[in-house]
Amino acid sequence: MGKAERLERRLERRLGAMAPASQAMTAEETQVVDDEEASGVRVDRPLVPAMTAAETWNPSELFQVKCFTARSLQDYEAAFRTLHDSYVRAGLCDPTASGMRVLPFHLWRETQVFSGRADHRRVATLSLVLDENNRLPMEEVFEEEVQRERERHELTAELSSFAVAPDFSQPRTEHLVAMTAAAVQFARWQGVDDLLATVHPKHVRIYRRIMGFQQIGEVAPHGGVMGRPAVPIAAPVNDIQAVHPRFLQWYFGNRILKEQVRRSYLSEQGYRYFRPFAIGAEDGRYRRPR
């Protein structure tokens, strides 16, 4: 058995026996679980059984990262530096002189940046873009798919820019859960009923197993991650059956406090500071090749 198979088996034991081990995400594959993801064929969402006594699980032993909404320039800068370092290491973007990865949507008022903290450090980040102004970053590649979701739901939002600082840890399932659970709780409190994301094909399964995401379009090259393949996925915010039983307390319980993820906005000072570093605003690099 190779190293990759052993890692997959280990993760399979952690997640439970809901799917074959080959469907799990390895530690290497999770280096950037977000823009760099996707899959092939849409499948029906399996109904997740109710949690049983045998599945009772105390995730506090594994979950080091605690997620907050970014509220200071230091939070935002740490997030953009973490995103930069993680993506550069994974080969998803070129290094920048600033050492930050700031995309135009990070500066939108409808974007909420999240800061993951552990050991008194800012070590992870994730962004959630609310579709309050009928614009989402993934529309540059998946316009038709986003429009279909928008027409079917009250309010959609897009998860993006998940990263963990390379000098802290390899991204792990618990990091993904800790960060996305905070974003999901935040989205629910903002009235969102539909979550979207773009992911690499080999990572769709982990999003489906944890949060019930389903593929809603075909694979396409994504200019935002050096032309790597990406696929659009969507998940309901309020469907408790879609969430893996082991993580119900995170996505629907009280592990995320409302004050922890209260909405915050980038200040005008922050906008002026980060705007010169925003990349890809005018060059059309996120559009699907015709």
UniProtKB/TrEMBL annotation:
Residues 19-38 are annotated as: Disordered. Pfam families: FeeM. Residues 78-234 form the N-acyl amino acid synthase FeeM catalytic core domain. Signal peptide: none annotated. It comes from the Bacteria. This is N-acyl amino acid synthase FeeM catalytic core domain-containing protein.
